């Protein structure tokens, strides 16, 4: 089965959002997605885009995405964060995920960044095995830390 990997365009965002929602179900957070198509379009394709997205197509249907954005490390300088690499469930095991991952790494090399980083759920053993086999390092002594919008509001209110 052949697929095409290309840079996303604004018109792809409805299908991209469908895949984001599919990922949320896979990650056992089906109601967590708050982002809208309009936000994806305005934040990814405006004057100062906040992310770059690759899409994988089969027969004009988007069946996979990889969404990345720049970060800045005080130790390494400019880096890329891979926010999500999503492959439609029916397309897993076809090599499409590997192709998207390779596209991200080629993009990182072309941009001259010193590091690509991402997070993976500790129970997603297939992904962990794939990343380790690719040469990536899992930093098991670090915690991912987040503060929700409501948490920020509460924190600031208590200052």
UniProtKB/TrEMBL annotation:
Keywords: Acyltransferase, Transferase. It is an enzyme of class 2 (transferase). It holds the Pfam family Acetyltransf_1. It comes from the Bacteria. Its EC number is 2.3.-.-. GO terms for molecular function: acyltransferase activity. Residues 3-152 form the N-acetyltransferase domain. This is GNAT family N-acetyltransferase.
